[in-house]
Amino acid sequence: MKSLILGLAFACLLAAPAFAGDKDPAASLSFVVVKDYNDKPVRNAGVVMHPVERNGQQSRGGLELKTDSEGKCSFEGVPYGKLRVQVIASGLQTFGQDYDVNQPTMEIRIRLKRPTGQYSVYDDHPEDQKNNPPKPDDKSDQKPQDQKPQ
């Protein structure tokens, strides 16, 4: 009987920290991902969360959520502090931004844009020519070849 009571007391001591709760506050985050141009939800988008250290470096590890058919997903137990959120969806620009988690409940609305054309140095860019007019040739002082001296 003594060993049973002693065993129960030991089990209660082990379980006490679980019931005491965490000292660090945690938040419940919900995300809504929509298309920027028509405000329709983006389903099956990947929402990646990474904690950010005080020096601005992204911590190792992280968590990926997937949006439902209404473009929503949520997660409870996010520790307060900086959080880097990246959203990846097929056919749309990748989104990335740091958030300061400082409330028990936060809803983050993310608007994904259409992809834009890529810039290439091999393409003609009229806007660049306005800013950088062509330089005159060094041969401009010379007479044309077909003219003969008089």
Can you give a write-up of this model?
The chain has a four-stranded antiparallel β-sheet with strand order 3-2-5-6, with no helix packed on it. The chain has a three-stranded mixed β-sheet with strand order 4-1-7, with no helix packed on it. It has helices spanning 2-20, 126-131, and strands at 26-35, 46-51, 63-66, 72-79, 81-88, 95-101, 105-112. It has 150 residues and is of the alpha+beta class. Strand 5 (81-88) and strand 6 (95-101) form a beta hairpin. It has a domain at 22-112: Immunoglobulin-like, CATH 2.60.40. Helices cover 17% and strands 34% of the residues.
- Ranges where pLDDT stays below 50 over 5 or more residues in a row are 1-21
Which secondary-structure class do the elements indicate?
alpha+beta
CATH class of the domain at 22-112 reads Mainly Beta
**In CATH terms, what is the architecture of the domain at 22-112?**
Sandwich
CATH topology of the domain at 22-112: Immunoglobulin-like
How would you describe this structure in keywords?
about 150 residues, alpha+beta, Immunoglobulin-like, 4-stranded antiparallel sheet
Please render the helix and strand layout as text.
Elements: H1 2-20, E1 26-35, E2 46-51, E3 63-66, E4 72-79, E5 81-88, E6 95-101, E7 105-112, H2 126-131
Parallel strand pairs: 1-7
Antiparallel strand pairs: 1-4, 2-3, 2-5, 5-6
Describe, in short, the structure shown.
The protein is an alpha+beta fold and 150 residues long. It contains two helices and seven strands; from the N terminus they run αβββββββα. It has a domain at 22-112: Immunoglobulins (Immunoglobulin-like).
